[in-house]
Amino acid sequence: MANEASWKPTADLSDELGEDACRVLVGPWRSYGGRARFRGRVSTVRCYEDNSLVKRATLERGDGRVLLVDAAGSLHRALVGDMLGANLAKNGWAGVVVFGAVRDVAELARLDLGVVAVGACPRRSNQRGAGERDVPVSIRGVRVDPGAELVADEDGVVVIVGGEGGGAQQLGKL
C-alpha cells in the first residue's frame, strides 16, 4: 500500500485520470476492515455462495494484492469472515473487496486489512469447490482483469485501467 504521504484518494484519481482510465465500481460499498484505505493489484475469484476458492486464495502470499470476489451481489451467504480475513492479513494482502456478503464484522474491524463488501450475513458459505480463479470479472458492468490496480477508500472503489497512456502508467506518478 502506498504510504499516507503519497496516498491519492479515489475522488482525486477519478478527477485526474478521467472516466476512461479510472473506472468506478458502483456499490453500495461498506467498509468492514481495520484499514479504510488500501490499494493493490487485483487477484479475482468468481463464485456464487461458495467460498472454496476464496479460502484457497487467502492461504497464498498476498504481496500487497487485493482479492476481488465477484459473488454476483448475493447477500444470502457470507464469503469472507474472521478466519479468512485473518489469513489475508497474515499473508500480506492489502485488502479484499466482496461483491456480496461478509460476516464476523466485529473481528474483521480489528484486522490490519481493508475489507469492503456490499453487506453482511451471518450464514456461512457453501463449500463445493465451485467458481473460477484469476479470470476477468464484471461488477455492475465494469470489467476488472486480474492484475489491474484497485484503489479503495471512504469514497468508494475504483479500478485503474492500463493501456497506451492509460491510468495504470499514470498511477505511479500520482
Provide the descriptors you would attach to this structure in a database record:
174 residues; Glucose Oxidase, domain 1; ten-stranded mixed sheet; alpha/beta
Verbal overview:
Strands 1, 2, 3, 4, 5, 6, 7, 8, 11 and 12 form a 10-stranded mixed sheet that branches. A two-stranded antiparallel ribbon has the order 9-10. With 174 residues, the chain is of the alpha/beta class. It has 5 helices and 12 strands. The protein has a single domain, classed as Glucose Oxidase, domain 1, CATH 3.50.30. Mean pLDDT is 91; it is low at 163-170. It has helices spanning 10-21, 52-58, 82-90, 105-108, 167-171; strands at residues 22-25, 30-31, 38-46, 66-70, 78-80, 95-102, 114-120, 132-133, 137-139, 142-144, 149-153, 156-160. Helix 2 (52-58) packs parallel to helix 3 (82-90). Strand 6, helix 4 (105-108) and strand 7 form a beta-alpha-beta unit.
